[in-house]
What we know:
This protein is mainly β. The chain has a single domain (about 15-190), classed as Electron Transport, Fmn-binding Protein, Chain A (Pnp Oxidase, Chain A, Roll). It has helices at about 55-65, 75-85, 90-95, 155-160; strands at about 15, 15-20, 25-30, 35-40, 40-45, 65-70, 100, 110, 115-125, 135-145, 165, 170-175. The strands form 3 sheets. A 7-stranded antiparallel sheet has the order 3-2-6-9-10-5-4. Strands 1-11-12 form a 3-stranded antiparallel sheet, with no helix packed on it. A two-stranded antiparallel sheet has the order 7-8. A hairpin with a 6-residue loop joins β7 and β8. The longest helix is centred in the first third of the chain and has 9 residues, at about 55-65. The protein is globular. The protein starts with 12 loop residues before the first strand and ends in a 17-residue tail after the last strand. The mean pLDDT is about 90.
Amino acid sequence: MRKNFEDTLVTPLPVLMIGTYDEEENANVMNIAWGGQCGPKHIALNIGITPEGKKTLKNIKVKNEFTVSYATKDTVEISDYFGLFSGNVVDKIEESGVSVKKAENVDAPIIEEYPLTAECKALEIVENEIGEIHIIGEVINITADESILDDEGNVSVDKLQPIIYDSIGKTYRVVGEVVGTAFEDGLKVRK
């Protein structure tokens, strides 16, 4: 037996921090759960509109560049904070006390508390009929802190401890254990 729901439930969702600069090179960061990888070198972001507007969206339209950092178990509090307040209302960088440096390949900030960051160029910005904004960004570079690298120098998800947003329970969860091998386990089904 199955149960039907009227509300759309898509879970889990990655918790992404979008970093931008405004015209005066002031850094801003926004928490977004409606986004993720949409191709080998592309990231999709979906931004809803609030009454005070979105500083991040305005900054992306001005610069056409942004960073995407992955929230982790160690950054839950500041990540949630970055989603609670608009950059049009408060200076989230100053108030949170995070460390910021300029990305090497795009005109956008890297928040140093996040150990994994993608540097992106906006390829497409589209507003739909209800005012939501869809952005496709090309990943130009990935920068990772050495603390999350494995013995071969690759990013270790176990060391990163990325969090996901559970839209059903409205909680953050840590990505868990390995339960299978992609592009291999499915071969066992074939007779």
